[in-house]
Amino acid sequence: MLRKVYSATEEFISQNRELDTELPFSENLSVLGKKLIIGNKTINNRLACQPMEGCDGNSDGTPGELTLRRYDRFAKGGAGLIWYEAVSVLPEGKANPRQLHINENNLDAFARQVDSIKETAVKENGFEPVVIMQATHSGRYSKPEGRPAPLIAYNNPIFEKDSPISPDRIVSDEYIDRVKEALIHSAVLAEKAGFDGVDIKACHRYLNCELLSAFNRSGRYGGSFENRTRLLRESILGAQQVTDGGFIVTSRMNVYDGFPYPYGFGVREGAGIDTDLTEPVELIKLLSSYNVQLLNITMGNPYFNPHVNRPFAKGGYTHEEHPLEGVSRMLKGIADIKREVPEMNLIASAFTYLGVAAPYVAAGFIEAGLFDMAGFGRTVFAYPDFSKDILLSGGMDKNKICICCSKCTEIMRTPGGTPGCVIKDRDVYAPIYKKQCGGAVNE
Fold first, then answer.
1. How far apart are CA 194 and CA 107, in angstroms?
2. Is 26 left (phi over 0), alpha (psi -120 to 50) or beta?
3. Residue 258 gets which letter from DSSP?
4. Are β-strands 36-38 and 41-43 bridged in parallel, bridged antiparallel, or unpaired?
């Protein structure tokens, strides 16, 4: 059975039928060019660059040379929304020594980059993209000095197995209060830097996400639904209160972790890892009542079960599930949420594996009102001008698409690695791959 990115739409159509995944397919790509209004902001089209971290900031937390290059390419690429990568709000919450970290001392560097993104986009495409900064604390994946220094919400035997993290690394309620204040302050800094919004990140098992499944944690941030969602909810409310009314406050949020209860959000007790969106829908309805108008939805954990949120052709393991089935779970799950909370504008994920079929599947869902935007992740490393080709040339170039080979992830997993596309941006990243991973580039 075909397990490679689709380089022809016929391949996708055939396998979509064979696997009975029933993903919609529409040739009306004009729907992807329609504007989307969020408050007083206008997103010029329905295509988004997802937050893909380059691990290439400077030692002071500011954007480095490769960071600037990456966003210059995104700015030229024509996407209506650029979701700026993870920016740490506390130094101990950095996922690697070169993760971006915004603070009062380096604000000007971020402001210059936002200005550059917008100026470049206007010159190249005739419009400013909406740019949202992702604010994060890496929690159990914190490595501020390059060595694991986890700060966890609770011990999790699925990850830790027979080497549990020391209980003194379980953060206190008082520490989480500090994280909340830092997340709120990051919104102030993001607005000052010229970003159009802030993402209070709650995905992929970083601290805010881990708390959503803290069923066995005691105190104000564990146990009940109210407590488990407290950090996310109160950070969003706080960020709204300290920023201008037109500033977008949002979240890239996991609605399904792919782990059994009591270690997973979006699952039901006694139901294994079957999806249960009851709590995620309840949370999204609450956020809607707070006047949150946009959410970026994802699933899974890229460190542990990446087939859930970024189905791959090649990776660290082979999963019995076909990648297209993972894409289907993601997109149909988001569509189910849209049916339950139709007033919320939703950005969907997991398009990269679809290759040249991606815009047609996105158009099918958006045309049917099943979500509102299509967010592309790994694609943007390989093919930063994907949006321009979709909207101006009528589709994606099969010679530019990401092939889901996982080489960018291989680089990211090495100490000091700065990930990018080894295949389609090889002049820059093939030497980095060879140095960091010692492998040949032969695709």
1. 10
2. beta
3. S
4. antiparallel
